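Tutorial, part two.
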Amino acid sequence: MENIKAVQESFSVQAEGFESKQMNFSKQEYLDYIVREIGAAKTDRVLEVAAGTCICGRNLAPLVNSVVCLDATPAMLKIGRDRAEKERLTNMQFVQGYAEAIPYPDETYDITLSRLSFHHFSEISAPFAEMNRVLKPGGKLVLIDMEAAEEDLRDTEDRIEAMRDPSHVRNASRSEFLALFQRHGCKLVKAEGTGIPVELSAWMELTKTPGDIRQEIISMMEEDLAGGTKTGFRPYRKDGTIWFDQRWLLMLGIKGVAASADADCAWKERM
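Running the prediction step on this input gives:
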């Protein structure tokens, strides 16, 4: 929880615009894909960890028994709660709490889920261990997050991410995520990468990045586009503006199934 103050400050700013149509972070097509891949049952109890506005949980709620949305930032939870009420979702709870210390007993949930949170954690093993602890044997642990750039550009990519959002810590690689599942006894049964188009100015507007930092980031992207120093973002121009594609990884593991590097499923690419 070392980064918690920065996370709360950043997401209090982002809360109102987090589900903005200008961003692709909450695009319905991708949310529908997540719901399909999870394959929830009507009897399932779901916990979304570091849930933000709990947009994944809200999409799952009509299909399951109950959804608990756990997040550290009250502003995000308030928006999620208000939207759940408007959507008449009566099987949801919104709880302030921390991913590193989930306030529920062992083996409580059929599904634990976290989307776009692990790059904000100072250390990723503890929240994963907690998600696994409260999961029933045979339950599904679902993790969705951004993938790190290639090794020689990771530091540059993370530096730009943190310039834009000071709560960003570090993007993890596929091998680092796989190691988490193996270490905690979760058999990885689904692992897919998807390119998510992001418009640079909208990305910085969401976090209200100060003007001088915005200009510095734009200059770095322009230099990359011109064939100079690489950023790790692989920017491109579209309709007169700068875009880049984030690589999102969806990983689903089953608790209590023996895992090994050889036995885990192969990565798939989804465009």
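Residues 259-263 have pLDDT under 50 and may be disordered. In part three we will examine how such features are distributed along the chain.
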